[in-house]
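Weekly structure sync, notes
Attendees: PL (lead), two postdocs, one rotation student
Agenda item 3: pending single-chain targets
PL asked that the sequence for the first pending target be pasted directly into the notes so everyone works from the same version. It is reproduced below exactly as submitted, 519 residues in total.
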Amino acid sequence: MSAAPRAELRKESTAVVFVVNGRRAAVDLEQSQQYCHSCDGAAALKTKEGTIPQQQPNRTRSTMLWAILFTLQAVCNSVAHAVQHYPAWGHYDVCKSQIYTEEGVAWDYMACQPEATDMTKYLRVALDPPNITCGDPPETYCALENPYMCNNECDATTEELAHPPELMFDFEGRNPTTFWQSTSWKKYPKPLQVNITLSWNKTIELTDDIVLTFESGRPEQMVLEKSLDYGRTWTPYQFYATDCLDAFTMEPKTVSELTQRTLLDIICTEDYSRGYVWKNDKTVRFEIKDRFALFAGPRLHNMASLYGQLDTTKNLRDFFTITDLRIKLLKPATGATMVDENNLSRYFYAISDIKVQGRCKCNLHANSCVFDKGKLGCECEHNTTGPDCSRCKRHYHGRAWSVGSYLPIPKGTANICIPSNHGPVHRANASSLGVANRNQARVCDNAMLRCQNGGTCHHHQRCHCSTGFTGVLCERARCQGPGECDDQLSGRASFHHPPISRPLTLTLIVLLLLIVSLC
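Predicted structure, written out during the meeting:
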């Protein structure tokens, strides 16, 4: 026998909210009045499925019950579908939406960010030393596993035999695989070292693992580094080696050993430096998602927790932010404890693919980023400007610029820039939901809050309305007497509704409790 449902009932603003067995549902009392024929002693309850009489003869009770059950089932399916597809965190893909307040039209501003994408489409790559790519002069290579299999040729003058750096970023659906390849270790015992620098000339935020796929054996020693100042200074992200103690005097660790307290620790791992047998063993990873999971849970279901940490911990936010990446290849795969000096053409680096998933950093002031004339830049909202939306637009310095906030979930806080001559400076948005200037609604501009019906914006402070119109944005007709206002002139429905009767409210609550229990 199933346990009796546990119910919790509470009122939030104009909505009745209840929770049964951990499942939440609500009814907006203001909106539900439109389904009531007569809210004072209503004779019938009108639903989206039809009209259900409140009093029926005994002979029709069965029909009424079936109608109620079908209605509840339809609503239940809709609720379940909505809950299934509504995440526990915000997408932050909308910067603003138009709303109606008691004083007229206003903008509801929200924190926003661009969608994550493949960032390798927008980078520049540089190799050091510059002549480290194979093919000049042409060279023949041997397989690491078989020194007598020497049928791989690299020739920079022949397209089919060339292996330039751009082949690390092309589409890998082709066969055979394309890849960049270095010269062989012909100057042994001098180290064969290569720096591969990826530059975006823009701050980006990493959203997924960095993955390098090697066509050759994975290097025995490697370092992944990051820069936050366009390559002027570098800090290590992670060390890789077959023997961390010998290579870097560091104890070997894995990302699974990290905790919330040690998430920012720089570790050396031996997981990606061994020889390979299967294709998946060709990869070297820097685990972004495993670090996210320390706050968001194993399947990243609790992104609200992660966003809260990113919002309040600058070091954590900076850890996942870069302008450049540098791959330092320090020692190629040798396949044995000793290097075969008689066959040095077996030792080289070859990379077939590099994946970097992320988004432009726009400080939560833009939901799109464009690549124009070889440069990435945010399409800024909230009266901000700059490649990262990191300053206020001209004439919008009414308060100091501030980064947007992920909190409160799911909309965040926009922290918009306000006009310079706006009046008293407010340190934060008037509402945690980001409704701009609610305490000073008489604000207009020529970009977003335009005056309507022929009105003109005066000093960004108020609209001067033409004859016959009034409102913050001149959006409604001026009333000359009782009953003379036509709501349709303003393009919106009246906000004055008759109160909802108590019996109807109780009926709605009972119906919603039944819906949740059935679901």
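Discussion points:
- The chain is about 15% helix and 25% strand.
- Residues 1-57, 79-89, 423-442, 486-501 have pLDDT under 50 and may be disordered.
Action: rotation student to compare against the earlier draft before next sync.
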